Description:
Elements: H1 23-33, H2 35-58, E1 63-67, H3 68-73, E2 83-86, E3 92-96, E4 99-104, E5 108-113
Antiparallel strand pairs: 1-5, 2-3, 3-4, 4-5
Amino acid sequence: MQKECLECGDKIVGRIDKKFCSDGCRNAYNNRVNKDSKNLIRNTNNRLRKNYRILETLNPDQKTKTSRARLIEAGFDFNYFTSIYKTKAGTIYYFVYDQGYLPLEGDYYALVKRES
């Protein structure tokens, strides 16, 4: 019984549990199968990366204050963050990895960097 490559249909030579005739076919198959989920992940990671760069640029001293308008002007998207930290006092910080922001009164934000 000859096995056929799942991608191109060519004859497979080698191990009995092999599914593809080459690395190229294996990569093409997996890229095709995972395409839809990869787009969502890629777009989300791009937004997180952009938010991180903006926070890092606006917060060079590890702790500062900025306006909502300045964040939006830089392209910041408030819908994308990696974690939320709630203090004992009930204050809620939003983080993009180690760069965080705290909403303040008057459309201002405190920018902070979490220590490792």
